[in-house]
Write a structure and sequence with these properties.
Layout (H helix, E strand, L loop, with lengths): L19 E4 L10 E2 L5 E2 L8 E3 L2 E3 L2 E5 L2 E6 L4 E10 L9 E7 L2 E5 L10 E6 L5 E8 L8 E11 L4 E3 L22 E2 L4 E4 L4 E5 L2 E2 L5 E5 L5 E3 L5 E5 L4 E11 L2 E11 L9 E4 L1 H4 L5 H15 L6 E3 L24 H10 L3 E6 L16 H11 L3 E4 L13 H16 L6 E4 L6 H4 L7 E3 L8 H8 L14 E3 L7 E2 L8 E2 L4 H13 L4 E3 L8 H6 L3 H7 L8 E5 L2 E7 L5 E6 L20 E7 L8 E6 L4 E7 L1 E7 L3 E8 L2
Parallel strand pairs: 16-23, 24-25, 24-33, 25-26, 26-27, 27-28, 28-29, 29-30
Antiparallel strand pairs: 1-13, 2-7, 3-6, 4-5, 6-13, 7-12, 7-14, 8-11, 8-13, 9-10, 9-12, 15-18, 17-21, 19-22, 20-21, 22-23, 31-32, 34-35, 35-36, 36-41, 37-40, 38-39, 38-41
């Protein structure tokens, strides 16, 4: 905690003593801020440039970003707070934001909605009698993207001291706990109910089933040109005729037989349910190599594939320093033989993903695909690539314009290149530009990053996840909003820090997975796959939770605000609803410092009227994490949720 800052005493005097001015930038990094993107910067913007608003440069202030919270203890001795506020000019886009000043929970001043290019707003707020003052930056209906906010020349006039205090509670250490029971020894088939592939392209799928091995597999009704390996369960070949095929999958072991009818659609559409897999960035960053990718593939095959996980994706850091004379891209020394690596991954029944950029360089400074799109697409076809994450880095040096049409154009170019190769490649439109969900489908994306990078902090997870309602209606089969990877397990090097267990508590991790499944977002694990503990593995292997993600309707999730948090719901193909009751408040402020620990030990009540789902009368409720029926309810469902936790249920109307 920062020491109390002493300012220069003024010469004025009165019955209550002299006043002094405390400049907030003089606290430096000692301010106990909570911010949902980037670091609070002193005397420069959040992106490390001079503080500049509407063309005017300011020498002192704080570079923030929504949602940002700065809380100060005034000991009821402050007189006023004054300064300026504005949206910083150094911003590709014009995110909407608002500045607020609150005293003891009461709003004292607000700027109104602001964007890049607006003039600064001046404030001079009376703080007499105020115990704590909060400087808040809010998002304004478009999420937190590109809300670069500057507090300028801010000073508090006081007769006492000013002390930064935590705006959020420090997490209380709790034991991780496992909710999901082990899978039965008898077969359970976990394939999604629908699968899409293009005619004439290599077909790779599997019967994904848990249960004792050895296991025998069968499939009836497969498209012509596709066959099943009865020992491995892998389905390969090339489908020759377009159409919808009702396929019965079977799995048999010493404990019994399971079967499941799925629909295989041979046509133009692929990725009909959200992608499930692993990405190398969050745990390995640019240090990823062949061995680490093979370790991830081996672990996925042994522990996760039976639950539906299938993509092994390399992020940035695989590219050589230059291309061949013919313009072909090469892998660097960390990946001596890409074709051998992809053959290994495909041999496990898994799929392989890669990373590139429409610019001449990638985010990590490696060779991008600019003006080599068709060559790269053909190279990836030869290597056997099944997934492409296409980031935006580097293209800004080529095209400075940040209009949506300009951003969309390079993605259309790569889409056309991918369409010329004979391979089903899931296409992820990266970068998270504002309103990407409006134009990425037209650019041919199967999924698109709606945000900047996630980290394993609760305020970041909630700022990303709980504002996805702004883009939810773009969700459809083959079209998914992507709020970034799952931050569970061992993480770190992708963010420049040491490898560590996720900073999210157990309750927060249950909430994180639950919300991403409700959002129909891609599920991409970001941890060190070779070192997953039992808790993380259990989080990722609940087939009933995963079924919500993989529901064939891919219906948009709906958000409802309630007293103790948020309720998110998603209609499922069978007429039931997946519903998550989340104890979450992106704008929570710890006004009472003494309550920091006790509040984390409480449970929070939710009373939910089923009419909000359109259900009249009775319904059956099932706890998805515990895989346990909770019985019949009539009208109102009641539950208690732990701090930052979730109750995740399936509600089925009575027939």
């Amino acid at each position: 905690m920062a020491a109390m800052l002493m300012g220069a005493w003024s010469l004025q005097s009165c019955d209550n003593g002299p006043t002094k001015e405390v400049w907030l930038d003089e606290f430096g990094q000692d301010s106990c801020y909570v911010q949902d993107w980037g670091m609070l910067e002193v005397n420069r913007s959040v992106v490390h440039t001079p503080l500049t608003v509407n063309g005017v440069v300011y020498e002192r202030g704080l570079g923030a970003h929504s949602i940002s919270r700065l809380l100060y203890d005034l000991d009821r001795k402050a007189v006023s707070i004054s300064g300026l506020a504005g949206a910083d000019d150094k911003n590709l886009f014009a995110g909407k934001l608002q500045f607020k000043i609150l005293g003891d929970k009461k709003e004292l001043w607000k700027s109104g909605v602001m964007q890049k290019g607006d003039p600064v707003k001046e404030f001079n707020v009376n703080l007499k009698g105020v115990d704590k003052v909060l400087l808040l930056v809010e998002e304004c209906g478009d999420g937190i993207m590109y809300d670069h906010a500057d507090w300028l020349n801010v000073k508090i006039t006081t007769r006492g001291d000013v002390k930064p205090v935590p705006a959020w509670a420090k997490p209380v250490a709790k034991e991780k706990y496992i909710l999901t029971p082990p899978a039965p020894e008898s077969p359970v088939i976990n394939n999604p109910l629908v699968y899409g592939a293009r005619p004439g392209n290599p077909f790779l799928w599997s019967v994904m089933a848990t249960g004792n091995r050895p296991m025998k597999f069968e499939a009836e009704g497969l498209p012509a040109g596709v066959k099943l390996d009865a020992v491995t369960g892998r389905i390969t070949g090339k489908a020759t005729v377009e159409g919808e095929y009702k396929v019965t999958l079977k799995a048999t072991n010493d404990k019994g037989t399971a079967q499941k009818e799925v629909t295989v659609k041979i046509g133009d559409a692929i990725a009909l349910t959200p992608s499930m897999g692993w990405n190398s960035w969050n745990c390995w960053g640019l240090s990823v190599n062949d061995e680490k990718v093979r370790d991830a593939a081996r672990m996925m095959n042994e522990k996760l594939h039976a639950y539906g996980w299938e993509y092994v994706n390399i992020d940035d850091g695989w590219e050589a320093a230059s291309r061949t004379k013919q313009g072909e891209i090469l892998s660097n020394d960390k990946f001596p033989d890409f074709k051998a690596l992809t053959d290994y991954i495909h041999g496990l029944g898994l799929k392989f993903g890669i990373y590139s950029s429409p610019g001449h360089i990638t985010c990590g400074g490696h060779v991008g695909s600019y003006q080599h799109e068709e060559i790269d697409a053909k190279t990836w076809e030869r290597w056997g690539v099944d997934y492409l994450k296409y980031d935006y880095c580097g293209y800004l040096e080529i095209e400075k314009d940040s209009e949506e049409k300009t951003i969309q154009e390079p993605y259309i170019v790569m889409r056309k290149a991918l369409d010329k190769v004979n391979r089903d490649i899931v296409y992820c439109v990266g970068y998270g530009a504002p309103n990407v969900w409006n134009w990425a489908p037209e650019a041919g994306g199967n999924q698109w990053r709606t945000t900047r990078d996630i980290t394993d902090e609760w305020n970041v997870v909630t700022a990303i996840g709980t504002f996805q309602d702004v883009c939810a209606d773009a969700t459809a089969p083959g079209r998914n909003n992507d709020p970034d990877m799952l931050v569970v397990g061992k993480l770190g090097q992708g963010w420049g820090s040491k490898v560590h267990d996720s900073y999210l508590t157990a309750d927060e991790q249950y909430s994180h997975i639950s919300l991403w499944c409700l959002l129909s977002s891609p599920l991409l694990i970001g941890c060190d796959m070779a070192n997953m503990d039992d808790f993380t593995l259990n989080l990722l292997t609940n087939n009933e939770v995963i079924a919500v993600s993989q529901d064939p309707m891919v219906a948009p999730a709906k958000k409802m605000m309630v007293e103790n948090g948020q309720v998110w719901s998603k209609k499922l193909y069978d007429g039931s609803y997946a519903v998550g009751f989340f104890h979450v408040d992106p704008y929570f402020i710890l006004w009472d410092q003494e309550d920091a620990e006790a509040m984390q030990m409480r449970e929070y009540a939710f009373d939910f009227d089923l009419k909000q789902l359109g259900i009249e009368g009775k319904a059956m409720v099932r706890d998805l994490w515990r895989q346990k029926d909770l019985g019949e309810v009539n009208g109102i469902f009641r539950t208690e949720v732990p701090y930052h936790g979730v109750t995740f249920v399936k509600i089925t109307p009575a027939k």
